[in-house]
Amino acid sequence: MRGHRCISSRQLDNSESETEDEESETMRCISCKAEYGTREAGTCKECYEEASETEEELKREIEDLKAKVAFLRFWSPLDNITRSHGGPCYTDVVLVASSHDGTAGPPVPVPAHKAVLMSRSPVFKAMLENEMEESRSGTVKISDVSYEAIRAFVNYLYTAEACLDEQMACDLLELAEKYQVKHLKAYCEKFLVSKLNWDNSVISYAFAHQHNAKLLLDTALSLITDNMDKLTKREEYMELVEKDPRLVVEIYEAYLSKQVNTAAHKGSSIKQKSS
Amino acid sequence: MRGHRCISSRQLDNSESETEDEESETMRCISCKAEYGTREAGTCKECYEEASETEEELKREIEDLKAKVAFLRFWSPLDNITRSHGGPCYTDVVLVASSHDGTAGPPVPVPAHKAVLMSRSPVFKAMLENEMEESRSGTVKISDVSYEAIRAFVNYLYTAEACLDEQMACDLLELAEKYQVKHLKAYCEKFLVSKLNWDNSVISYAFAHQHNAKLLLDTALSLITDNMDKLTKREEYMELVEKDPRLVVEIYEAYLSKQVNTAAHKGSSIKQKSS
């Protein structure tokens, strides 16, 4: 075994300055190749190698799961319309927007398979299993929603993919809520949370309330309660007071409990100092 | 900064014997908590923390993918037969085993959705897209395969899951090959590789050859060429010589090239020593 030179932590700390021939005398990180001292110690070689193996295993599992997703994903019957794959795709139901947004012309039906709708949504399952009107007619009317939203909704049921902007995320979250497609609802909610800011916080809060989107609700609420001083001047705030004062009350209640917690926290930290 | 006691690598190597109060003076692995010396150095703290974060991210991705798989997975129409979920499931095609295994009674039809078969298999897609006999009659006859195998096959097309033993893995691999369901073929092949041993190596080799199962073929072949001395005595070997001598030739060719490589390797290592 080589001899070991006596080195102080200080020397080790700014060891980047040391010359190459001294490498073997100090700890060198296998990963970043920099030398390090006692207080920067991470793991021993064995644990490092174990960790690397774990990472490899996780990556393999991800590859397997991606292949499984690719296998289970459906081509959507909409592909046949837009990209004209040609050939029949044996759709046995259509979804139609009975839209009230005053768009001209008759609504365009979106074709689908009962089997797919039923497997993705318990609401569709109940609707199509029991011989209800939709099942007999092979037509499912959906009100207050655009053709584009229904297209995207059906497409998601086949592919588990959607191209979102904020409007589409809201429309799809509403549909996901209505037809109990949890996976889509979570997907839209995550997107809306990522788009949260002070300007859309009040509207998002009200929207989340309306559609039981817990994650979006809590995130919006904490954003609002962090900016109470600016809140009352906002137009959306005044509208909300008019439209749904209970929601405003909940904002203040959340603000209050936050203040109490902060106070309690401060108190305890002061105690700690004084003791 | 604390003073640093001078310690030799040797002391660090058997540092487990050191007492607690000297901990802070030596490198201690964050992961396994054991002390380590220069030659056992793994990573610095920063790299350790980075690696931990990566692991967390990978685990989150796995959770997301598992949820996606759960969403995209179908309930199989077979569930309705066996567990009698009740309600129609709008199947529009049946698969029938025109079995030659001499089982009594008429074959039991396995119900399915054309849309599902078409989305999982390009062969079914071509068959059902173009108005072929199967498409018109709504019946797909499959020869030389048991009812159980067809059931398991259809079930896999809906759920990406199968309960395998060696016989079922072979049957499903044949079906996967015939209908070009790559994901299922890979799944069965992995299983058969995991079950490979000296006793089934020759049969597996021949089977893999017949169905273009490259991974199984190579694994079986290397198992065989590692035991050439025992090979010629095996019954399956003599049968293979009778039935398909070309496959036997390939075994010997593989064995030969292996010997050449080993010789070359030995040669080079001897050279290195002598130099």
Describe the structure concisely:
The structure is a homodimer of 275-residue chains. Chain A is mainly alpha-helical and 275 residues long.
Strand content of chain A: 5-15%
- The poorly predicted ranges of chain A are 1-25
Mean pLDDT over the full residue set of chain A:
84
- Gap between N and C termini of chain A, in Å? 52 Å
Radius of gyration of chain A: 29 Å
The number of distinct β-strands of chain A equals: 6
Q: Based on CA inertia axes, which overall geometry of chain A fits?
A: flat
Strand order of the largest sheet of chain A: 5-4-6
Largest interface: A-B, 75 and 75 residues
How helical, in percent, are the residues of chain A? 55-70%
Question: What's the SSE pattern of chain A?
Answer: HEEEHHEEHHHEHHHHHHHH
What would you call the quaternary organization? Answer: homodimer
Q: Profile the largest sheet of chain A.
A: 3 strands, mixed
Q: What is the number of helices of chain A?
A: 14
Structural class determined from secondary elements of chain A: mainly alpha
